[in-house]
Design a protein that fits this description.
The chain is built from 9 helices and 15 strands. The two termini are 32 Å apart. It is of the alpha/beta class. β13 and β14 (257-261) form a beta hairpin. It has one domain (8-21, 54-106, 129-333): UDP-N-acetylmuramoyl-L-alanine:D-glutamate ligase, CATH 3.40.1190.20.
């Protein structure tokens, strides 16, 4: 299977609405040369720090790196971390004008202490994961409608930090249907039915196991889990499976198709944020007119690039273009009707 030569050239004109839990990843880098006399813990000598976009913001960063136009909807606090996150979004060329500020909660920030060879020795999370409600939820619903109004695809990035509530899912679904554009969901809630009506679900295999209560140990298992999710939601399904690659069930193809995509990564440094890259490539690929299998193949290539890097990262359009010749899916046909 070869990549449509015109497909990647269409990425820069695509508009993607990304809705979900935004995060700021804060890295403190240093070295360790002694153990504290106060407790058996390493003493880290500070060297430098770095801020990166995480969660739904990392999805948007990947869309922007691929040349697309990302409009981001999420919650931040009225705090220094929220201001820093907004600055990082602006630097990446991401529209953060629809972020909703909630003074009652902190901006989600993950502070990681990292030593030589990118070894993490501690992590501190600043977050509140209560579901948005009241005026904050109403503002989110309004922001969702505004972001989707001119979008070519919609992504729900659910990290269970309070944004992707049933009301937010319903608002995104209504707006996507009115536009006639795909709705992609990176799910975290175990009740798969909550995402019914989505175009595509992209759980990892652990999430798929929990959502279906079916263990995934083989190709037959992952096919059965994908079919179960399809039966409960009517959505196409892409399950990421680490070093085993991906399993794709394309319910919109005619005829419907299932396919195994083997992993392409030769070196894995860090899987943090790999799912964000996958759904970003899928969204912009579908928005550019690619069939799901072709978009999935590109997402598989992008994942192989991003897992070789430390921390959440974005793949550029030039990098994806250079690497896109590798790998091809092995399709099989014939799916049951959704139950």
């Amino acid at each position: 299977m070869t990549v449509d030569g015109d497909l990647l050239t269409r990425f820069p004109s695509r508009r993607i609405a990304v809705i979900g839990d935004v995060m700021l990843d804060h890295f403190l880098f240093g070295t360790v040369d002694r153990i504290s006399p106060e407790a058996p813990v390493p003493v880290v000598r500070y060297a430098r720090e770095e801020l990166r976009l995480g969660g739904a913001a990392n999805v948007a960063a990947n869309v922007a790196a691929l040349g697309g136009r990302a409009s981001l909807v999420g919650l931040i606090g009225a705090d220094e971390a929220g201001a820093a996150l907004a600055a990082e979004l602006a630097a990446a060329g991401i529209d953060g004008s629809r972020l909703v500020r909630d003074p009652e909660r902190p901006t989600t920030r993950k502070v990681r202490v990292v030593t030589s060879r990118n070894q993490q020795v501690a992590r501190v999370d600043y977050e509140a994961d209560a579901a948005a409600g009241g005026g904050v939820l109403a503002a989110l619903v309004d922001a969702i409608a505004g972001a989707v109004a001119d979008a070519d695809a919609v992504v729900l990035s659910d990290y269970r930090k309070g944004v992707v509530t049933p009301d937010a899912i319903a608002a995104a679904g209504r707006a996507a249907r009115s536009r006639g554009v795909p709705l992609l969901v990176d799910p975290k809630v175990l009740q798969a039915d909550r995402y019914a009506g989505a175009t595509l679900l992209t759980p990892n295999h652990h999430e798929a196991e929990l959502m279906t209560q079916m263990p995934i140990r083989s190709g037959d298992d992952i096919r059965a889990a994908a079919r179960a999710l399809y039966g409960r939601t009517g959505a196409s399904v892409l399950i990421t499976w680490g070093e085993h690659g991906m399993w794709v069930l394309d319910a919109q193809a005619s005829p419907p198709v299932e396919a195994a995509l083997p992993a392409q990564a030769r070196e894995v440094a860090d899987v943090t944020g790999a799912g964000d890259t996958v759904i970003a490539v899928l969204a912009i690929g579908l928005a550019a007119g690619a069939p799901l299998l072709e978009a999935a193949r590109l997402a598989n290539v992008a994942a192989s690039l991003v897992v070789a890097r430390f921390g959440p990262a974005a793949v550029t359009l030039d990098e994806l273009r250079a690497a896109a010749g590798a790998g091809a899916p092995t399709p099989t046909a014939g799916l049951p009707d959704p139950r």
